[in-house]
Amino acid sequence: MRIFISADMEGITGLVDAEDVQPGGRDYERGRLAMTEDVNAAVRGAVRAGATEIVVNDAHGPMRNLRTEILDPAARLIRGKPKAMGMIEGLTADFDALICVGYHSRAGAHGVLSHSFMGHEIEDMWLDDRPTGEIGLVQASAAALGVPLVALTGDDAACQEAADWAPGVATVPVKYVRGRFAAELRPENEAHAAIEETVATSLAARRPALAPSEQAATLAVRWQSSTVAHTLLGIPNVTAVDPRTVRAVSTPPDLFRQFGVWMRVASSLTNQAPYC
Hints:
By secondary structure, the chain is of the alpha/beta class. It contains seven helices and twelve strands. The strands form two sheets. The protein has a seven-stranded mixed sheet, with helices on both faces. The chain has a five-stranded antiparallel sheet with strand order 6-5-10-12-11. The mean pLDDT is 95.
């Protein structure tokens, strides 16, 4: 059984502020440790369920956050950037399940550190006219490859968002939103035990296999800046919805790859902090 773990940071146990998750932040090093501990709990659960291969992709920010020296040796790590598929780099149809650790809710949601990929540079996203963020786009891309999302950890808002996209997904709320930068925290030992048990149980339950799909979808993104939207129109397959919104039509994995290019274009044109 081959398991893929995509690890973000905002939804990690105990983390609530940009200072916890951004390089240079006062508590970033503690955040790195917390992120690694949550991932290790998921790895232990996968091992208990009989996983023969576990690949972890560091999916947050610089994608060099996980503490390699204390990462469970049962997992292989994909680290660094740029990566063509970003948060799901390395995910292929050969994997049996996807696990998302430390995920957060989409831009505009009432969730801890809620945003979609680039902080307030991205105001809204839609997949087939459905509001989405990282959870929705990752889930849809994995499903198109035939890989089910079986478990997700994050705050309660992220867990609900995941359940909306993948009914039946097992979720672990490691904190409960009290504000965008405030939460009621589960004790670390309790959260780690819950992650391990939930991953082990969800993988042991034999879910029906997903059939890979080539069905096209439409991704639309509203940017804060009309400059970004206007510049993206130079990319084939990108069309304008309005002065700040662009869209493209393709399969979800191809849209995910292309969206990574959109973000690199946006980064070259803007210089704004992600959590203002």
